[in-house]
Amino acid sequence: MCAKTTLKFILLLFTLLVISFSQPALAADTTNGAKIFDVHCAGCHINGSNIVRRGKHLKLKALKKYGMDSIEAISSLVANGKNNMSAYKDRLSEQEIQDVAVYVLQQAEKGWR
Hints:
Blueprint: H1 3-22, H2 30-45, H3 60-65, H4 71-80, H5 94-109
Helix pairs in contact: 2-5, 4-5
């Protein structure tokens, strides 16, 4: 390898390391999130709908409308509840809340198909 190629390789490696350490890892298990959703959420939110309050469904348009279109926002809502929705911070671990939040956002982005 010539010096110029070695330098390019080192710069590329450095760039990849900086990027990987500067962004927080999303260590969510969406399979677990789906199971948690089925047990704790699907009773009111079957297929992303809402049987209690029609406008407060989990479709991407509604999530965006109410500022719930991020993992952080969904996690906070799951943990703390709001209005008719119960809080789950005493029933689910932080990791389980994260898992279900990632699952909900992914499903919303896919149109709950």
